[in-house]
Amino acid sequence: MPEYNVDIKMSYNEILVPTVDSIRMKYFTKLLVMNGKHALTPGPTGTGKSVNIAELLTYELPEEYQTLAITFSAQTSANQTQDYLDDKFEKRRKGVYGPPIGKKFVIFIDDLNMPKKEEYGAQPPLELLRQWMDYRGWYDRKDKEKPFKKIEDIIFIAAMGPPGGGRSVITQRLQRHFNIMTYTDLQDESIHTIFYTIINAFMYNFTNEIKTSLDSLCQMTLRVYNQVLYGPLKPTPNKSHYTFNLRDISRIFQGLCNANSKLCQMPVQLLRMWIHENKRVFGDRLIDNTDRDWLEGVLIEECKTTFGLEKKELFNSSRIIFGDYMQGIDVDTRIYQQIENLKDFVTKIEEYLEEYNSSVKNQMKLVMFLDACDHVSRIERVIRQPLGNALLLGVGGSGR
Length: 400
Ligand SMILES: Nc1ncnc2c1ncn2[C@@H]1O[C@H](COP(=O)(O)OP(=O)(O)O)[C@@H](O)[C@H]1O
Ligand SMILES: [Mg+2]
Description:
Layout: H1 20-34, E1 39-42, H2 49-59, E2 65-71, H3 78-88, E3 90-93, E4 96-98, E5 104-110, H4 124-135, E6 137-139, E7 148-151, E8 154-160, H5 172-175, E9 179-180, H6 188-202, H7 208-230, H8 246-256, H9 267-281, H10 289-307, H11 311-314, E10 322-323, E11 337-338, H12 342-359, H13 370-383
Parallel strand pairs: 1-8, 1-9, 2-5, 4-7, 5-8
Antiparallel strand pairs: 3-4, 6-7, 10-11
Helix pairs in contact: 3-4, 6-7, 6-8, 7-9, 7-10, 8-9, 9-10
The structure holds adenosine-5'-diphosphate and magnesium ion (MG).
């Protein structure tokens, strides 16, 4: 493994820490591509398939390899796929098409097995690819005569998750054309390396107490993650969204990277934030108090065994809430900090509401109570992050 330094000016989601697994997979994928062989990389969600392949294709291939990326969905049709690709090809000779002379197209198909099966069990976009694999081309639908178009100098790389949840088993007739390399779930050491490297880089100017506790913090996070995965939070029909993967750990650390070096000097302050981020990432997805209490128990237990801190030291107010809006929205750098005084918190949100109401015609006459403010705060936390998307679930009238 090469030595790796995180560039903290990069946006969090662009940081990719090399691990033994990712280097190995990229090495073999590259070797295959450079020799004109097609590669298929199946593996569970959140194992880094998409990010590793994207990085390989963007930065690590010689210039003559150009990338076309398609992500398949359940609704992708064969015609859409063909039109998208046909658009990029140039005519070389009569009936022969391809990338500009001297170039090669590496076509990256993400989520290969997503397209819905049609009446007879085929996945039309996949059949199109198979036609190219078997006959090196497809028919020109736009021409009246429908002549056969030969297509040269293209190489396919595909990624897909295991069957289930909308993904199908793909046909052997397509599969046999690919070299298959499976991504396995990351080992705990790899996860530790990735996030320790990142958080350590972000907190380079924090106090020594904080810096020396980061290693334990990563291990605690991993233990919580494993308990969430293998403990009582299994997906069942009424909790079908209890699916957790590497992306969730990644979001916890994304949250922690917002810490402020002046306000976070002692481990206990860091741990409050850690509890908050865990509750946002894992806890906000839970549907009842039994599950939420279980999670809080796990978090408190971890803080106790690793740092010897009791619940009453950690919970300096009845709820731990972090946000970056307390100093107002116009300040230069907004500081993500704990809101210790819950009265001020509600007052602040009311102030924002008033400000909003004074500037628009359709006023919102809302009563802001603690739970409502808490929801506002959670939504704000998600959308301030790059690539942050929130989906609010609830019964009608719950105030979404
Ligand atoms: N080596 C790595 N360094 C940093 N983050 C990683 C690494 N590998 C995976 N991740 C993170 O894990 C998440 C899942 O990766 P992704 O490629 O989307 O998974 P997949 O396509 O296999 O479902 C991404 O958010 C990515 O940031
Ligand atoms: Mg993916």
